[in-house]
Amino acid sequence: MSPCHSCIPGADVFVVHVAVPVTRAISGLFALGLPLEVVPGKWCIGKGKHGGQKADQSKLKIESFEKKGSFGQIFRGSYRNTPVAVKAMRHAGRASLQEAELSMSLTHPNIVKTLFFKEADQPLTGPELWLVQEWCDLGTWGSHCCVPRLVSAGLLEALDMCLDLANAGAYLHSRDVLHGDLADGNVLLCSDASWKGFVCKVCDFGSAAQNPVQASSSSSTVTYLAPECLEQTDGVHLLKRDVYSFAMLMWQAILGQRPFKGLQAAQLVILLSQGACPQLPGDLPAAVLQLYKGCVDPDPQRRPQFHGVVKDLRPGHSIATRSMGVCFLRHSLTQAPNRGEALQLLTCTIPKHLRLSLILEQAG
User: Of 53, 57, 58, 62, which Cα lies nearest the Cα of 28?
Assistant: First the structure.
């Protein structure tokens, strides 16, 4: 069935009267190259019992179709003049609501923020679920990690991306949330004022579980799957699956390609069951190799927790400073009055206008 639509006189805008799945109607209108405006009363978005806030649907505008996935479709739009992504999903009952409610409850700089969501019960087509989220303008981890970053500023950028990801993981695990599907398409890049020009944010909590014992790895991307996911487990150390997936994304950020590139899922399952694991080049800083080795340990119990990974990657720690490929420059600063101690300013200048200054007190 085709959507019923009409043109507003004097305006280049279509009004949609939804009688088919909203996603299908919108896709057809975008194929005509015309902008679409959300009209109050025509869309079941906003002012729902869920979402924790009243959303003024008249302020939500859909501007372009972005992509289609197995879950549904994603559109770019604006809400109160702020860019947003609108994720339209087939309503799968409680599972869909769990993703929406969990997304709404998460507040962290490295988690994609969900502004509000709404169940839309279309009489002719069945239920749908719409999530309105912050717009991340620089693509995905996978689209960005397409060149090697093995030395100097490149390696530092890769490690800083990993720090963003580890911060997100530490926050989720502190709330006992297993993401369950950390893959290069589920980490988005958003412009910001940091030295690298962007921040990484985790999205897509369709595989997440508030109680890790209830988590399922069936939908995880095999490339990033922890080997224990291929076996029946009792739920112990389940959160450490995310740590293994983090290591695969770390490998990708440094090497500039997906782990096990070119292999099919069935081949990967066989390799993982045999204990195969991609290795980093041996000439990388020892601290980087040690962190990676710990995160891919075949025994989940021996893998570090995310808060430990954050500590290792935090600026000023050995991994970050040793990986810059430059030396600290020492400058005597001043003599402390009435004490036989000298203050020294340690400055390390690296590309991309990052300046790290540490004032250390050293016994004289």
Answer: 62
